[in-house]
Amino acid sequence: MRAVADLLPRDAPTPFHVITGTSAGAIVAANIATYAAHFRTGAVTLERVWRNFHVDQVFRTDAPNMLRAGVRWMAALLSVGRLASPPDSMFDNEPLRRLLERRIDFSRLRAALATGHIDALAISAAGYSSARSFAFYESRVPPAGHALPWPRGVWAELGITHLMASSAVPFLFPPVRMHDEYFGDGAMRQVAPLSPAIRLGADRLFIVGVRHDHKLAPRRRDATATPSFGHLFGFMLDTLFMDSLHAGVAQLERVNRLVAQSSVPDPEGLRRIDSLVLVPRADLGAIAARHARQMPRTVRALLRISGAADADGSQLLSYLLFESGYTRELIALGYADTMARRDEVAAFLEPGVRPGAGAHATRGRCGITSA
Fold first, then answer.
1. Are 176 and 161 within 8 A, CB to CB?
2. Is 33 helix (H, G, I), strand (E, B) or coil?
3. How far apart are CA 248 and CA 246, in angstroms?
4. Cα–Cα distance between 236 and 306 in angstroms, integer?
5. Minimal CA–CA distance to 317: which of 337, 296, 331?
6. Neighbouring C-alpha atoms within 13 Å toward the C-beta of 245
């Protein structure tokens, strides 16, 4: 987002009319939406928070809290649930709620919608009872009678609770109750991550993912080495959040070919959707492994106990490593990856307008999807 800000005129509003996000991407999306009138201010504010992140801003890491959670797990296990129930999650992420309450003002979102700087914001979360991923959205014109424009779209007055639900990684953070159901991380069961932006009217998609699409050869290991609990836990979470982004982009390309080959305008109600996809050129798990020692001692001890303290535990570590050394390296990577394609990005956001041209004009409705 900082790179995009540097490619636009200094006082430009957001180039994105429809903004959607999932998990940590939902928090980024909400920040972009609330600063829609001054995109650079939003990008700089966002960067400042992430550059100075620490784990204790996301979940409690002090020894008493960690010990209490461990005692509850042990008491529940030994008493077969009779004397104590297990905690709702491994960690208490109440600090994250307080951080979001300080940093994200949803009244600014309503102002941006009212002035037309954006058309809609959507935040995805997965319902544990319904076993489906929903897109909770707020738009300039609420649907009449709360009619749903698509089966998994729910109009709502968005707030911090939706962000907490979308980023509630299962087992690690507690589920969030809202809309008469408990919800967790929006990446679960999200088979069509591009759908919310398209359904809300975007005809160009600026897509930001977190997984590089490199083809990796199997790693050679000692065949007798049993995977640790931490390795299996990280693998399970990664499988649960199996990235459907690249499959969605491939589907989008197939639809575009169908539209281009059809002699009938708007075949079967389909329309062409242009897209630009930005994903990291490096493996974020490998980067996380280099910064493992920045974690608080209590968390490092937990990772050692679970066998996730070495390179094989990098998948689990990457879900917990909210430390500035790691986040600053990711910011630098994201900035470099975007600037490496600066002409392509600038042309996509403002067709016919190059960096420094001064005018802010976009063709159609540009949406951003952040995973």
1. yes
2. helix
3. 5
4. 14
5. 296
6. 22
d(C-alpha 99, C-alpha 114), whole Å: 26
Q: Are 185 and 128 in contact (CB under 8 A)?
A: no
d(CA 3, CA 334): 8
352 band by pLDDT with thresholds 50, 70 and 90: very low
Is the separation of the CB atoms in 120 and 18 below 8 Å?
yes
Helical pair 297-306 and 63-78, crossing angle rounded to 10 deg: 30
Tokens encoding 230:
């931490």
135 closest CA partner among 203, 205, 209, 191: 191
Cα 179 from Cα 171, distance rounded (Å): 21
CB atoms within 10 A of CB 292: 21
SS3 content of the chain, % helix, strand, coil (to 5): 45, 15, 40
HSE of 98, CA atoms in CB hemisphere, 13 A: 9
CB 69 within 8 Å of CB 87: yes
- Adjacent-strand bridge partners of 274: 204
CA 292 to each of CA 122, 130, 308: distance values in angstroms, whole numbers, following the listed order = 33, 36, 10
pLDDT, tens digit (0-9, with 9 covering 90-100), for 145-197: 544 456 689 999 999 999 999 999 998 899 999 999 999 999 888 888 899 99
Residue 368, token pair as written in the block? 């951003």
The token duo for 347 is: 């042309």
pLDDT for 61-76, tens place per residue? 888 877 777 777 677 7
Phi (first) and psi of residue 217, to 5 degrees: -80, 150
> Please, what's the largest Cα pairwise distance for the chain?
70
- Give me the sign of the Cα torsion angle 93, 128, 120, 196: positive
CA-to-CA distance for 100 and 242, rounded, in angstroms?
27
**Tokens 């180039």 -> residue:** 15
Q: For residue 160, what are its two tokens? A: 């911090």
